[in-house]
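B., you asked whether I could sanity-check this one before it goes into the benchmark set. Here's the sequence:
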Amino acid sequence: MKSYNNFQLRYKNEDLKMGLIVTDKCLALSLYKRSGIEYDITTGLFSSDPKAIEWGERLFGYYKIHSEAKLHDNYAL
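And here's what the prediction gave me:
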């Protein structure tokens, strides 16, 4: 994937407790169970509403700004 110009792997040293997928047509947001230990694949928020997608893009942008473009100190991407 590293050879693709539009692919970038970023790292945030924080347990986010969510899964987020945003495309130009859809938003998918999944959260952990209340225990905070298990990711809940059985539930999630899915929307194709432009306002939801816009919100998802803002959330993605926030985490993109507050993350680093590397996996490990010795392996900059």
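One thing to flag: The helical segments are 50-65. Otherwise nothing jumped out at me.
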